[in-house]
Design a protein that fits this description.
2 copies of one chain form a homodimer. By secondary structure, chain A is an alpha/beta fold. In chain A, 37% of the residues lie in helices and 18% in strands. Chain A has 8 helices and 9 strands. Chain A has helices spanning 17-28, 40-54, 64-69, 80-90, 126-133, 149-153, 170-181, 197-214, and strands at 8-12, 32-37, 59-63, 73-76, 99-102, 140-142, 162-167, 187-190, 220-224. An 8-stranded mixed beta sheet of chain A has the order 3-2-1-4-5-6-7-8, sandwiched between helices. In chain A, helix 1 (17-28) links the parallel strand 1 (8-12) and strand 2. In chain A, helix 1 (17-28) crosses helix 2 (40-54) and helix 4 (80-90) packs parallel to helix 5 (126-133). The longest helix of chain A is centred in the C-terminal third of the chain and has 18 residues, at 197-214. The radius of gyration of chain A is 16 Å and the shape is globular. Mean pLDDT of chain A is 94; it is low at 230-236. At the A-B interface, helix 8 and strand 9 of A face helix 8 and strand 9 of B.
């Protein structure tokens, strides 16, 4: 088994705020990071910025499908309106054994609505929609929704938030637990099967509503009262 | 304005676990508490138990509608399957100026499903359903879903959980903020308009799912990153 810091992570939508923040943290944690964007130029510009900020020499930018090709973990961080098209564009590019992490929040803004509201999706959640569109055999894990872009960008500060994650495949959840907990401050919490993704997506929208109401940019969420948390990997 | 500990709170469904736990905490905080139940006998038995545990002489049990008559704040803690019928039974009994607090979680168990799943309601949330059925002019506040019955029952321990609350009426939210924060450990967090109740109900179901998965009985939730929280009343 390769150690955590040798993993290659592709962040599809990595030139956006949420994806860029995650990519920054992964690069800081000495992982190999591939920034994916619709435009290879934009991806490369984002990669250069992250390399400067972190001093990492293992960050590169590529068009989305090319970024996916080289990755063991693919993190999807595009807006809901782009999720289906993006998945159709990358589904032929997954390496054998790769994992798809979906961080999509089904915000109503995708249909011209409000940032603080979500829409109900036919599949039950954005993550289940991602699982339907993902190549057969690629396990899907839903997580990272609650980690605010602003908190991720503040590289010198720990992120005061749990990463609740759900999915069907225990090995994939173990790998993503390690990925999440490579971000200082983040604790991964297993939230069960993939169908629970609707709870995680809903909780993320709640945090957005709280940000707007309380005029902050990085509210987060901690689960209390969970003793004996099942740990999938070494903790720091 | 009467001070917090002179308020009379009716807990409809107060002979159940969640309602009983809330009533216990309110009695401990030296409020006047009316336990409501379908059966006056059951309500009186629950009231006697709470009086013994807290030493309070201001706890009484009554049939639901009679409990509501005497209260400034009415907290509804019945299962989803009983919510509509209960509201129809008490709607004629609200005192002028009274507030309705809805703590209903629309669990799928109401239709023979799972404890860890919720159903979608026509009104958008159980609290909005309560608002539709409440008497005109009675403000509705949605809260308390996340406070576990077990944590409430452990009278010597603080409850490690935020009480997110939402509603349309600022004065009602202020009163319920005081009510919530009379429980040691609980912080009230304004989560916006009543339509956001679906987030709070969903978060409560997530905590139930986490309880089942992690084999605990009182997971809770804290919001981080909210500075300058708007306080509606004195804090202890």
């Amino acid at each position: 088994m390769t150690s955590q810091n040798q993993k290659t992570v592709a962040v599809v939508g990595g030139s956006g705020a949420e994806g860029g923040g995650l990519a920054l943290r992964f690069a800081k944690a000495v992982m190999r990071v591939l920034i994916g964007s619709r435009s290879a130029d934009k991806a490369q510009a984002a990669a250069r910025r992250i390399a400067e900020l972190t001093g990492s020499e293992n960050v590169a930018g590529r068009a989305n499908a090319d970024a996916v090709k080289g990755a063991e973990i693919v993190v999807l961080t595009v807006p809901l309106a782009a999720q289906t098209e993006t998945l159709k564009g990358i589904r032929g590019s997954f390496a054998p054994g790769a994992i798809l992490v979906d961080a999509t929040v089904p915000l109503e803004i995708a249909i011209g609505g409000r940032l603080s509201r979500i829409v109900a999706l036919w599949d039950g959640s954005a993550a289940q929609q991602a699982a339907r569109l993902a190549p057969s055999g690629v396990p899907v894990v839903s997580t990272f929704h609650a980690l605010s872009a602003e908190a991720l960008a503040a590289l010198d500060s720990a992120v005061d938030c749990d990463a609740l994650l759900c999915g069907e495949n225990a090995d994939a959840k173990a790998a993503v637990t390690q990925l999440a907990e490579a971000i200082p401050g983040v604790r991964a919490v297993d939230a069960g099967p993939l169908e629970n993704a609707r709870y995680l997506e809903s909780a993320a929208a709640l945090l957005i509503a709280l940000n707007l109401r309380h005029k902050v940019h990085h509210s987060g969420m901690r689960i209390t009262g969970i003793t004996g948390l099942k740990s999938y990997g070494p903790r720091q």
